[in-house]
TrEMBL record:
It comes from the Bacteria. It comes from Paraglaciecola psychrophila 170. GO terms for cellular component: plasma membrane. This is diguanylate cyclase. Residues 410-455 form a coiled coil.
Length: 623
């Protein structure tokens, strides 16, 4: 095989050889390949490459054909996404192509010309063909390939150095767009001095390192404050919010590859980047729901974390191309929770407090950054991303506010500690005499108060709560159960054959039976929050908080069985005490008010009487 053919083969395979002599052939004419005169375009230290480029899609045109003026291409306007340059059918079948642009007056304008390749998706490989026909490998991002499985990618922090002391030549960029539909050469492309490009890269890196430092400060500072004040749950939520933003900033930046340079990490880092599109928004909703709780805010937060779980599962399990293709849904979830958070803050304006004002101002800055980045992600010409900066500015402002509040509380505590003892000592002597007088009066008043309270709340015969106290307590518990979506059961019991006891043994014996049953109920292993009251005559009601219909029926059956064991002794003999029970539950019976729930329990009690007494009957669902 001849030397020329070997060179042709090597060039067509794009091996990373620094310099491959092709042959002395005339390059394509200036009328064929678009040309940029960098000297004329030079402005503010750089020369823009925006404008006409040659694009050959569906093939990697060999360097030999480009040099021999045998390349087929069309003229396109860059920067732009491939989706706007190529029809959908072609793009679905062929996801690779060649970009070509001729540069002149390069060495007359720059000493060390360079291009920052940040805005190139997906994998790319760059070559330079000079006027003599020599091809020089410039650099690459991972490994270009004609199928997704073989492609390798890394984030684009690379600065592409063009040849020095070369006045004219052709820049060739081979692209494989196997992952992103919004692939191609987009954003601000320009030639600048290597030192200037490197300085811009390092300045950007320094600003992001500063952001990460602020993020770490916010996280650890709020965790530290939370450790000292566990009641301030908002501090922990702010730390979680800050950590989610910090993780988002870390994985979404190109500079992560300073730590993880292997393309093998690209897959997991990109998946993590998509997860952190949604997580900070949910964490923000949780944080602001704690600051400004609203109706259903707890449900929204729970739904948010359920969505996060689904997003994580989907993102980690499906193919990466599917994740990227569904970016719209990630951004949609981000928008939904961002709008909900904004609603919480606007709703808090009724507080008219400094904190709510600060939150509103800082959140609108944050929301503006999010809107800006969503627009930048969909634009091929506008690529300024600022949400990371606004996020950290917001978090830092909130952390400092809470820090000042925390420090103020500590200062107040310290002041009280240093001065309170002296103030107390001065007042102790003056108060001691007065205290003794007040203690005597307080003891008397307490006795009277307790007596009045007992008389107003309890039934004088049984010692159970009276009907008035039941009505008030039942209304309160019913409202709480509705608001908190909890179970609430009502048990109504009636002593069996009570009229016969009164008629046969006298009302004094009947009253004694009522007292005996009341004592039994007070000694029964009911829970601390269970409420027992005399409803009227021989009827007793029991309110069981946070208890479903099954649990209420079991408790009622235990009481019923226990009562049947009681033998009440009288002069005429022993009286067997039994009772019938009716049970109803708010959720189970779908009661809309206390009156309806009382009627359901009373109807169930009536059924228990009809069915033979001494038993428990549960209200029907359709009652």
């Amino acid at each position: 095989m001849s030397c020329g053919k070997c060179i042709k083969l090597l060039a067509s395979l794009f091996i990373g050889v620094f310099s491959v002599p092709l042959f002395s052939a005339q390059l394509l004419s200036a009328q064929s390949i678009p040309t940029v005169d960098v000297q004329k375009e030079f402005k503010n230290g750089k020369a823009s490459l925006a404008g006409e480029w040659a694009l050959s899609w569906g093939e990697w045109t060999s360097l030999e054909d480009i040099a021999a003026s045998e390349a087929n291409f069309k003229i396109v306007q860059l920067p732009n996404f491939v989706t706007t340059l190529i029809d959908d059918k072609t793009l679905n079948e062929l996801r690779f192509g060649t970009y070509i642009l001729k540069l002149k007056n390069l060495s007359r304008t720059f000493n060390k010309p360079a291009i920052r390749m940040r805005n190139v998706n997906d994998a790319w490989q760059a070559w330079w063909i000079d006027e003599s026909g020599q091809a020089q490998f410039l650099g690459e991002s991972g490994k270009i390939s004609k199928n997704y499985e073989a492609q390798q990618m890394r984030f684009k922090t690379q600065i592409l150095q063009l040849p020095q002391n070369v006045n004219s030549g052709t820049l060739v960029v081979y692209l494989s767009a196997q992952l992103y539909k919004r692939a191609g050469m987009y954003g601000a492309f320009d030639v600048r001095e290597f030192e200037l490009a490197n300085k811009a890269l390092l300045s950007d890196l320094a600003s992001r390192v500063a952001l990460i430092a602020i993020g770490l400060l916010v996280v650890f500072q709020n965790i530290l404050f939370y450790v000292f004040r566990p009641k301030e749950r908002v501090l922990l939520l702010l730390a979680v919010f800050a950590f989610s933003v910090l993780l988002r900033a870390a994985v979404s930046t190109d500079y992560v590859y300073y730590l993880f340079g292997d393309p093998a990490y690209f897959d997991i880092l990109l998946r993590l980047e998509y997860i952190t599109i949604v997580w900070p928004a949910v964490a923000a909703a949780h944080f602001f729901s704690c600051l400004y709780p609203a109706k259903f805010s707890t449900r929204v937060v729970q739904l948010g974390y359920l969505i996060i779980a689904l997003v994580v599962t989907f993102t980690l399990l499906v193919q990466l191309t599917q994740v990227v293709d569904n970016l719209f849904y990630y951004q949609g979830l981000l928008g939904i929770f961002s709008f909900y958070t904004m609603w919480l803050i606007i709703n808090s304006m009724i507080l008219t407090s400094l904190r709510s004002t600060l939150m509103i101002v800082s959140f609108f800055v944050l929301f503006g950054g999010v809107v800006n980045d969503v627009f930048a992600a969909s634009s091929s010409t506008y690529n300024l991303y600022v949400s990371e900066y606004t996020l950290f500015l917001f978090l830092f402002a909130q952390t400092q506010y809470h820090s000042l509040r925390f420090v103020s509380a500590l200062d107040m505590a310290e002041h009280l500690t240093n001065n309170l003892q002296k103030e107390v000592a001065q007042k102790t002597n003056e108060l001691s005499i007065r205290n003794r007088e007040l203690e005597d009066k307080a003891d008397y008043l307490k006795v009277q108060h307790d007596r009045i309270k007992e008389l107003s709340e309890t039934d004088h015969l049984t010692g159970l709560y009276n009907r008035q106290m039941f009505d008030s307590y039942f209304d309160l518990k019913f409202t709480e159960a509705i608001q908190q979506t909890e179970h609430l059961s009502l048990v109504m019991l009636d002593i069996d054959n009570f009229k016969e006891i009164n008629d046969g043994y006298g009302h004094q014996v009947g009253d004694a039976c009522l007292k005996a049953i009341a004592e039994y109920l007070q000694q029964t292993n009911l829970r601390k929050n269970d409420f027992v009251a005399r409803y009227g005559g021989e009827e007793v009601v029991i309110v069981l908080s946070n208890t479903d219909i099954k649990g209420a029926a079991e408790i009622s059956q235990r009481i019923c069985d226990g009562l049947s064991q009681i033998k009440f002794s009288v002069v005429q003999g022993a009286i067997a005490l039994t009772a019938s029970f009716g049970v109803a539950e708010l959720t189970y019976n779908q009661a809309s008010n206390t009156t309806q729930l009382l009627k359901l329990a009373d109807d169930a009690l009536y059924q228990a009487k009809l069915q033979g007494k001494n038993q428990v009957v549960t209200a029907k669902i359709d009652a």
